[in-house]
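Figure 6 in text form: structure in, sequence out.
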């Protein structure tokens, strides 16, 4: 039997990159999948490429977004994989809006979704998975507040798990950080080009130096493992080419 057979899964940020890979894998594993993203055209293309998927055009950073999402589907699993492409310049070249962009997108959407999950009844055993970044562990000196925002996503998963347990809610929260840059994605290529420029080297040479690099499909595999497997004792994980490891 497929690992997610009969499950309802909402993937926020599903129109590209890692989110798309997760939505595709969930569909193949038998889940009923709701793909959520801001761009209607991108969602239409996704729907054409993945017959059977449902779509919802929604800006997940809006205060009312979780209520809208949960009004369309009562999911067994919610995966949040959206994110702004951060700046790729050193601190002294950034404005505050540049520096804080990922706090107002990635982290705000995570906060709103997790808060709603704690407030609104979800199916028994529902799981909320926040896609973070390896920058949350190693930092990212040319990406403004990106690393801090991604670290806060991991903290947030832990905070919400403790709160769910305290309130006796049957919910599971995970933060999942892809350990390495993924040039296959828009975000990853922006990071490659930014670091190559910063270090004065060729982008291809920079990519060549990335070891144990996971792919978007590896991240999707990790999401399925967290979504379908037994509850883990920790809330934050790294994934690289070797698989999952607790942070």
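Output sequence:
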């Amino acid at each position: 039997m497929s690992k997610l057979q009969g499950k309802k899964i909402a993937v926020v940020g599903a129109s590209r990159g890692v989110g798309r890979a997760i939505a595709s894998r969930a569909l193949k594993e038998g889940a009923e999948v709701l793909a959520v993203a801001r761009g209607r055209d991108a969602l239409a293309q996704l729907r054409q490429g993945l017959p059977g998927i449902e779509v919802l055009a929604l800006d997940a950073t809006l205060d009312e977004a979780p209520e809208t999402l949960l009004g369309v589907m009562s999911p067994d699993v919610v995966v949040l994989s959206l994110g702004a492409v951060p700046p790729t310049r050193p601190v002294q070249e950034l404005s505050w809006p540049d520096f804080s962009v990922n706090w107002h997108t990635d982290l705000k959407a995570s906060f709103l979704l997790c808060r709603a999950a704690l407030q609104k009844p979800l199916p028994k055993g529902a799981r909320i998975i926040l896609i973070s970044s390896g920058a949350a562990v190693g930092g990212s000196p040319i990406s403004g507040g990106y690393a801090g925002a991604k670290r806060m996503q991991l903290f947030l998963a832990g905070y919400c798990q403790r709160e769910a347990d305290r309130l006796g809610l049957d919910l599971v929260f995970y933060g999942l950080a892809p350990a390495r840059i993924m040039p296959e994605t828009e975000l990853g290529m922006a990071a490659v080009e930014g670091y190559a420029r910063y270090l004065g080297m060729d982008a291809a040479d920079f990519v060549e130096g990335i070891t144990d690099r996971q792919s978007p499909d590896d991240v999707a595999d990790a999401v399925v493992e967290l979504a379908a497997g037994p509850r883990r004792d920790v809330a934050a994980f790294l994934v690289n080419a070797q698989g999952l490891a607790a942070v």
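Caption detail: The mean pLDDT is 96.
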